[in-house]
Amino acid sequence: MFRVRILLAAVLAASALAVLAGPADAADKPSAKFCAAAAKIGSNSNGNSPTPQQAAKTYKQFKAAGKFAPAKVKAAANQIGSLLQKIAQIKPSNAGDLADLYTSSDFKKYPRAVTTFFLFQAKCGT
Description:
Oligomer: single chain
Number of helices: 6
Largest sheet: none
Radius of gyration: 14 Å
Order of helices and strands: HHHHHH
């Protein structure tokens, strides 16, 4: 679970980076539907390590936001969702599940996906 916390810290760091992003062009401005859906992401968090149920719910929230995003951002949301789906299926008693997660292609692609998604979401406030 310690590594899951590191993963969530990376999400928060990417969010902070997204806030510092420059102003958006009008063509790249997210729709109100995307912004509303993206604002709900993580609304079920209690500040602790996520449970498999919370990961599954967050997966659905990313998928919902991705429906209203451009192709590149939608692909990033799906990539994040794919990793969350794997987290939701982890059995805490099985160390092999965690090892499989950290060696998966979803985990390796996660940093770029989270950066793409949250940089686009940062444009919601502009």
